[in-house]
Each structure stands twice: as structure tokens, then as C-alpha cells.
Amino acid sequence: MTVDLHGPMARRTRNTEVLLVLGVSLGQSAIYALVRIIARLTEDRPLSQQTATLNASQSDRPWLDLTYQLLGIGFALVPVLLAVHLLNRDPGDARRLLGLDARRPGTDLALGAALAAAIGLPGLALFWAAARLGINATVVPAGLPDLWWAVPVLILAAAQNAILEEVVVVGYLVTRLRELAWRTATVIAASAVLRGSYHLYQGIGAFVGNAVMGVVFALVFLRTRRVLPLVIAHTLLDIVAFVGYALVPPDWLDWL
What we know:
The chain is an all-alpha fold. The chain has one domain. The chain contains eleven helices and two strands, in the order H-H-E-H-H-H-H-E-H-H-H-H-H. Strands 1-2 form a two-stranded parallel sheet. Helix 7 packs antiparallel against helix 8 and helix 8 packs antiparallel against helix 9.
């Protein structure tokens, strides 16, 4: 049955749904990140002397650590399934609506790779500048032990981040806000600010860089109606960051 989005009850239902989806996923992360950056900024040490570790080890027992890592990756994808399920309750196929199907594999892959290249190099420059200006913490992209499963887990973590963020923050959120008749510029701003907000724990530079990325990704989605290229681009960016950090010699990291 089609929901009448013009009725006040239907609009309240949609608004509540959006808040709940964000509340169990990246909206919650944004609140924690805001609290964390306030805590960082009020510490005795400057922000540039603090560290934000991604993909940290969860146990000094390797198999238990691996179990925790895989559980974390798996459960982080539950909000994605929830968002797709909620979109599927309306007439139509949510995968097709979001552009998550395999209709255009070559085009999606090419666009994803192009986006990764276009965003990656300026992103590195912004990251370097933010570090020199002291408005970012020192980010450690990979804190896993040097074990056989570390690189596969980092690749899975990169894919998980990409799927969660692009489906929820771009595909789902943009779709729902458009249904609620938000203006296009406001929709793009909301998606971009949310993306920047849950990266605030890394610093002000991370907020700015990810917000800019959010604007680009939202515009691409509105033009193509395809989330898959965004997932591919984000996965490639995170794989380079996570795996590259884990494999680069320590002397190089010190120089960077």
C-alpha cells in the first residue's frame, strides 16, 4: 500500500523512521564524535599531539581478536539491512531504487575508480595540511597485530565502512529527505554535514574533508541514482589508507 506522504501522520512517521535509523547507526556515531572532539579540545595536550586509532586490536589473544573484528564488521552492517528493509516496504525494489544492483558493473566500477582518484589525492593534501596546522589528531588507520588475518580484515573493514556510510548517509537519507520534499541543497547539506560529523573525533580537518566528500557523493547520487559507484570509491580509498598504512615501512611513516 502506498503511503500518502502529504498527510501529517505519514510525514511524522517518515521523520521518526529517519531519526531511528540514524540513531542506531551513523547519527549515534556523530553524537559520540562530537563529545569526543570536545574532550580532545579540552585536554591539556594540543589536538595535534593526540592519536585517533582506527581498526584497533580488541584482544591480545589472536583468535579472540579476529572473532571480535569479524563480529564488529558483521553487526555494523545491520543498519544497512534495516534501511533497505524499510525502503522495500514501499512499492518497488530498494536495491534498484538505490542503485545497488548489478545492471551496470563496468560503468559503476569505472565511475567508482575515477571518484576515488579525484577525491584521494586532494584528500591526502588536506590531511597533510590539517596535520601541519594542528587541527587534526594523529590518525593511525590500522592498529591490528602483524598476523596473517590483518590485511583481509582491513579489506573487509574498508568494505563495511563504505557500504554502511554510502547506503545510509547517501542512498537512504537522500531518498527519504527527497520524499519529505526537502530542498535539494538542504538534502545535500544534511548528508554532507552528517558525514563530516561522525569523523569529528579525528579533528576539524577530518570534518571539513569528509563534508566536502559528502557534497560530491550526494551530487553524484542525485545525478546517477547509483550508490554502488560510491561504495566502490569509498572501499578503494579505505583499502589504500588501511592496508597501505599496515604495509608501509615505519621509516616512511615517520617521514610522512
